[in-house]
Amino acid sequence: MDGAEALALEDERTALFDAIRSDLLDEYRQNHDWPWIIGYSGGKDSTLVTHLVFEMLLSLPPSQRSRPVHIVANDTLVESPLVVQHIIESIEEIKNAANAFGLPIITKITRPAPDQSFWVNLIGRGYPSPNRSFRWCTDRMKILPTSRYIKSQVDAAGQVILLLGVRRSESSTRAASVGRYDNGERLNKHNDLVGCMVFRPIVELHTDDVWEFLALNEPPWGGSHLKLIGLYRNASGGECPVVTSKDDAPSCGTTSSRFGCWTCTVVEKDRSLEGFVESGYAEFTPLLDFRDWLASIRNDKERRQARRRDGRITITEGGTFIPGPFTLQTRAEIFERLRNLEAETGQRLISDEEVDLIHQLWSEEIADHGKARSLNVREVVKGK
Ligand code: SF4
């Protein structure tokens, strides 16, 4: 690129960002009091949206900062360790700075209900590690916690505007999902959430535009975007964005996921954790090995019960037998290995509440099996 071309590109970028800023300001000043909710994943795109909104609020006199802005992140409880640390720290920085500046910002980290966590479903109920055809995790661990929060705000305010950092050029999947929201207006109805309008202020930006902005501008809440840039440098692949509907879900747990769960067996290989390990975070190697082991036992028939949890046997129309959940022995083995992993890495990977729920589910299942067995015996005796 020669000097003239570089200057033209710079002018184009400046115009793009000016247009985004004026869009944000215009929407914020609309004559209603619907709160804004920013879906914050800690990744580059939602960080940029948060940055621009924070700056816009700062630019307004206090009397005009009337609309509350919620910044909502989700922690699946099995996020990649460095990523969850970044989310928690950055949300804390944003909250402190917003308080200091008197901005109407409310921060929130949503989490799955303990009963629906990864470990309770995998070890407690024996759900096989998620894969493409049985991806039970995204709904329970990502969509529901965020949706619950959005719905609570809809209940309180009647309507909300959800700001998402989606970009058309991020990937073909994203382009398709953006297309579903595209009615030519600034605000589009959310496909699943009633009372929620979607606003995608940076939809037309390209990846380079985002990086250049983050590299050249310090966050208005203090610190620097270098930590975030470092996270991307250390991991490989793309981005696992905020997921609020099944239409967004294909981008979660794909080979390009960067900010996904460290336990993700939907991907062939965990590119994100692998990237961290390659960049010197050797302490994540045991997590990576554990994830690979989980993926490897998924289709081992010896480790799966014949019947599903509701007692049915599943045979597809084509005659293929689909095994049920992991056997209790395998669940106990996963649990023991997880505890050993905690001891090895010095990290807390499962909470006491989850452990209690797992034990409760096991006891209920053992009691149910006992009842079923005694019924079978009576039936055999009757049949004689
Ligand atoms: S990153 Fe993987 S394990 Fe986590 S919710 Fe998405 S598909 Fe499921």
From TrEMBL:
Keywords: Transferase. Residues 38-265 form the Phosphoadenosine phosphosulphate reductase domain. InterPro entries: PAPS_reduct_dom (IPR002500), Rossmann-like_a/b/a_fold (IPR014729), Sulfate_adenylyltrnsfr_sub2 (IPR050128), SulphurTrfase_DndC (IPR017598). It comes from the Bacteria. GO terms for molecular function: transferase activity. SUPFAM superfamilies: Adenine nucleotide alpha hydrolases-like. The keyword Transferase applies. This is DNA phosphorothioation system sulfurtransferase DndC.
